Amino acid sequence: MQPLIGITCGQERDGYFVTYYYAQAVQAAGGMPVLLPFLEREEDLEYYHRLLDGLILSGGGDVDPIYFGEEPVPELGEICPERDRFELGLAKLFLTAPKPVLAICRGMQVLNIAAGGTLCQHLEVKPGLVKHRQHAPKWYPTHDIEISPGSKLFDLLGGCQTIRVNSFHHQAIGKVAPGFKVNAWAKDGVIEGLERENGDFCLGVQWHPECMWEKDQSQLELFKALVAASQRGNLYAR
Ligand code: MN
């Protein structure tokens, strides 16, 4: 049986929105994608947690900084209160009774906040800052990241220490949540990946592998690992 992989959505006008790349990547990796509308009741979030074998926290807009105890900076973008509430609630359930999570871009930021970390609300332009909001096709990698040897991410990406990734963010991880470690940095020191230290499959990436895998098959390994972990019950497939 293909494991059920929930994919969170954003909101656009009166509808839910998520690019089709996530579902395509899950399917290509052997999983069964399921799109998740925002629900409010705690028991409904618990039902999702029981039903799903794995979770993708998808990309999107900014998270309300109230969730990490800060006032908004002027550069803060659009926020969606229903989405913040739903995703943070779901992330906490997947962290507490662990099931595999792949958290992408905003998703990694949501995961870090849910686990007790903070964000940098806006990357100030200063000498040495890499361009993290690329103006190039979505699949096209525009900046390098350094991956820490010995991390799970390093193993999953075939032992490459430097890879090039796409980049669509103006925020970044601030204080790393307890129980997590950084596994990748951009050349300017911006955090590009996080993983849980305890061995649970709980991986965050700041780039968008779902837009890259058709041109770069190594990026599909992240989704294959999520699906494998979801089949095996919360273990990294090795
Ligand atoms: Mn970046």
Layout: helices, strands, pairs:
Elements: E1 4-8, E2 10-12, E3 15-17, H1 21-28, E4 32-36, H2 42-51, E5 54-57, H3 81-96, E6 101-104, H4 106-114, E7 119-120, E8 143-147, H5 152-156, E9 162-165, E10 172-173, E11 180-186, E12 191-196, E13 202-205, H6 220-232
Parallel strand pairs: 1-4, 1-5, 5-6, 6-13
Antiparallel strand pairs: 2-3, 7-10, 8-9, 8-11, 11-12, 12-13
Bound molecules: manganese (II) ion.
Manganese (II) ion (MN) binds next to loops.
Assembly classification: single chain
Stretches with pLDDT under 50, minimum 5 residues: 234-238
Strand order of the largest sheet: 4-1-5-6-13-12-11-8-9
Give the CA-based shape.
Answer: globular
Please report the number of helical segments: 6
Number of strands: 13
Structural class: alpha/beta
Name the ligand types: manganese (II) ion
β-sheet strand percentage: 15-25%
* Fraction of helical residues: 25-40%
Order of helices and strands: EEEHEHEHEHEEHEEEEEH
* CA radius of gyration: 16 Å
Distance from first to last alpha carbon: 20 Å
| Global mean pLDDT | 96
Largest sheet: 9 strands, mixed
